[in-house]
Amino acid sequence: MSKVSRRKWLGSALAGAAALPALELDAQPPRRQRRQVPATGRVAVRDRIHQSVARWCYPKIALDDLCRAGADMGLMAIDLLKPEDWATPRKYGLICAMGYAGADDIYNGLNRRANLPAIERAFRKNIPLAAKLGVPCVICFAGARKGRPDDEGANYCIEGLRRLTPIAEDHGVTICMELLNSKIDHPGYMCDHTAWGVSVARGVNSPRFRLLYDIYHMQIMEGDLIRTIRTNMPFLAHFHTGGVPGRHGLNGHQEVRWDGVMRALVAENFQGYVAHEFIPLGNDPLMSLRRAVALCDV
Length: 298
Fold this sequence. Notes:
Blueprint: H1 6-13, E1 50-53, H2 63-73, E2 77-81, E3 95-99, H3 116-132, E4 137-140, H4 150-171, E5 174-179, H5 194-204, E6 209-214, H6 215-221, H7 225-232, E7 236-241, H8 258-267, E8 273-276, H9 287-296
């Protein structure tokens, strides 16, 4: 498979389209509903880790085919779909667990006021649809630093999210800002450390704003995964995986002990989703996904 990046995929698929107060912790990510479709031929899973897969990693596979194969191997959801695709996984007993709703530009995000009006218009349109179609979370990004200090960028993100979270609160949808590495994949990205993201979450102070903790990215930036997850679990609504180094399949040649991280999530009674977001290698791009699902099924 030719090498692809989420940024490249988004470019084609989505073109045109300081002390802070304590966070209220009364609302948790919505619990996944068990599939109601026949399970004939499907792999039995323990159902303790609710697994998903990022759509952009499989550009040569039709969405219906990816949903069908994902359901058969034990997935519960598909990640990073556009609004026009949110209904498709439902045909296979899945949902879209993390959707694009109009805050899709990694480098032009909420750390600049000029970007907020377009994001707000899109959220007002798409978050009600997300609620209708059972999409529990929508993604947003901090944006690139471009010379802006981190504390100033955090304040702008807080300001913008305080305008956006009432929309999410009204519809029971959680807005998630993704933690990404700025060392290799996304130079200059501002939300590149857990502590910075948590500071924004505290400042927003809404049960409908959380972080998308990408394990691949945070292994590169911080390491210390399990302790960081345990310490900050109230602020984390969703997880992504990816082998380190290389962002390929999950296996014993990678830095992360994936079954250990998954067991930590189970111990924390995490009820959200863990989505596989890695670039598959080999002639069968679904083989490494099957292996990842089995590895994380603890």
